[in-house]
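In response to reviewer comment 3 from the previous cycle, which asked for concrete evidence that the modeling workflow produces usable outputs, we include below a single protein chain processed end to end. The sequence was submitted unchanged, and the resulting structure tokens are shown without manual editing.
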Amino acid sequence: MQAQRFQQFFSRYKILALLIAIAIIWVFFASLTHGAFLTPRNVSNLLRQMSITGMLACGMVFIIISGEIDLSVGSLLGLLGGVGAILNVTHGWSIGPTIAVVLVLGLLLGAFNGYLSTYQRIPSFIVGLGGMLAYRGVLLGLTGGSTIAPVSDSFVVIGQGYLPRLVGDGLALVLFVLLAFLTIRQRRSRQKYQLSVVPFWQDIAKIVAAGLILLAFIATLDNYGGIPVPVLLLLVLLGAFSYMATQTVFGRRIYAVGSNMEATRLSGVNVNLVKMTIFSLMGLMAAFAGMVNTARLAAGSPSAGSMGELDAIAACFIGGTSMRGGSGTVYGALIGALVMASLDNGMSMLDVDAYWQMIVKGTILVLAVWIDVVSGSNRR
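The workflow returned the following structure tokens.
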């Protein structure tokens, strides 16, 4: 009986359960590191580290919701980051043209993956597996197996820079006002159409809690440089992808394709075009993540992005995205990415052996999928 109640609670309040899990993880590592885990410096590094997985998760969540998978994103991240380093270091390109070329290349390679998976009917698992090997091979060929360094200072800012504190504080205030406005607007919209609404105090509590979290977030980062540029970029992408998922026709079609592809096709939706667009967005996110990773390391590495696809997939499943498709949220995937980054960071600080880190992360991935399967069987 208690197990069933827990499953029902998790199904209804997934994000709350994930936030509680993160709090437990942070308290656990803080106690073992004598508070070092929660220092402003480490929190800043943790969020910077999480931003790369988060960018991949933004695209991967759409892939999984549509009922597909893409195993090539880690190698694609490495390839696109390597191309950026080669253009910047070897050919002396400035940051503007370098970013433009890398983003367009990521979009095209993502579209190519989508074309093979949709119009050529090759299973996305096979397309991703082939891309994982092929893109890594291309990267090794372009770099000769050696690191390309150092990238220009303007490139490094993308991965290592900070916003001025006043600018960061202003953006935080704007974000809080926007959150309050959207919460109130959603409530009024539901009342207008005579839909059920939660008690007013719950919406107020939600806004106050978000404000307190945001205040703690900004205060901590202000004690160590300010908001990192990669974190700002991730927040912008979070807003864009969340809006796309919840406020656009295209977003509704993504969920429809994952829920029942044939019914969606019969309703007149071009399913192949929707899926190809999703894969294109995934390639674009791999380009963003590749550039941030290269800037963070100040170099293009032939091993960059290794296992990145597994971290992104795990983040989506931990964040509540259903492996059956048709269900999931972008912010849930990013919270899942924060869980993965917290585990990586904490175990690294404790000097846990690499094989134990892999065992822990693999176990959590299987546990997340098991919870999804159990909650799905209960709904049926």
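The mean pLDDT is 89. We consider this sufficient to address the reviewer's concern, and the full set will be provided in the supplementary archive.
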